[in-house]
Design brief:
single chain; mainly alpha; Prepilin peptidase; transmembrane helix; membrane
Length: about 140
């Protein structure tokens, strides 16, 4: 479990840096960590653990397809949760997803409040923000629990 937590922390840190800077999470990052999570599962627990890794990836990936279809998040975010699920498993990736959405909602509300209180902010307001700004505190909450 310690290696999977470290791998997920590295994945999220790298995704945070690229998402905040370019609002992009590279396919090489998410794809590499997905494959790494599956390989780790196979080597550490055989076929059953590989299946658990793949189910975790699906649990992270599939629900976020709906949000991607609604243009609420980017494709990189969807793939990120798939890769994280390969390392974390179903339960933990679903908790990470829930906490991320809660933090994302709080950030969205804060941006709306700022938009209404800052003079001239309506002209310069951006309707999107890097989702990793919500995922990072969510991951911290998950690891503290």
């Amino acid at each position: 479990m310690m290696l999977s937590g470290l791998a997920t922390a590295i994945l999220l840190a790298a995704a945070f840096l690229t998402d905040v800077r370019w609002q992009r999470i590279p396919n090489a990052l998410t794809g590499g960590f997905f494959l790494g999570g599956c390989l780790y599962g196979l080597l550490s627990g055989g076929w059953q653990q590989l299946m658990d890794s793949m189910l975790g990836a699906a649990a992270g990936f599939v629900p976020l397809l709906l949000l991607y279809g609604l243009k609420s998040i980017g494709a990189g975010d969807v793939k990120l949760f798939g890769a994280a699920g390969a390392w974390l498993g179903i339960g933990n990736v679903l908790q990470l997803m829930l906490f991320s959405m809660l933090f994302g909602g709080l950030i969205g509300l804060a941006l709306l409040a700022l938009r209404r209180t800052l003079p001239g902010s309506r002209r310069t307001y951006h309707s999107s923000f890097p989702f990793m700004l919500a995922v990072a505190p969510a991951a911290i909450v998950l690891w503290v629990m």
